[in-house]
Amino acid sequence: MELKDSVFRETPLAEANFDEDSRLVFGSKEDAEKWVTEQNREHTSRGQLTLHTAHPADTSDVDAYVVFQPVKGVWVPDS
Fold first, then answer.
1. What is the Cα–Cα distance from 62 to 4, expressed in whole angstroms?
2. Is 70 in contact with 76 (CB distance < 8 Å)?
3. Which of 3, 15, 29, 42 could share a disulfide with 7, CB 3.0–4.6 Å?
4. Which long-range contacts (CB under 8 A, 24 or more apart) does 15-22 make?
């Protein structure tokens, strides 16, 4: 999965803790969902991370993306 820019702007997660593509590899979708759930426990007052399956037309090798939705429900655009 790949973490979108919004994750690093709005949460305590830092780009320096991930590879240059801001990606993490998991053995299963369940493992990825578990990681997202664990991370959400750390910053529930700010909003939440959500895992989105890549669109069928996505030509990257990413299966899913993690984005951040603030508490007020306004999506932060990614660059």
1. 12
2. yes
3. 3
4. none
Q: What is the pLDDT of residues 25-60, one digit of tens each?
A: 999 989 999 999 998 887 666 788 889 999 899 898
pTM over 0.85, yes/no: no
What strands, in cross-sheet order, belong to the sheet with 47-53?
A: 2-3, 64-70, 47-53
Query: Whole-angstrom Cα distance, residue 19 to residue 49?
Result: 19
Q: CA-CA distance, 79 to 76, in Å (whole number)?
A: 10
Is the distance from CB of 40 to CB of 48 less than 8 angstroms? yes
Residue 65 — φ and ψ, nearest 5°?
-125, 150
> Which tokens in the block code for residue 2?
């790949």
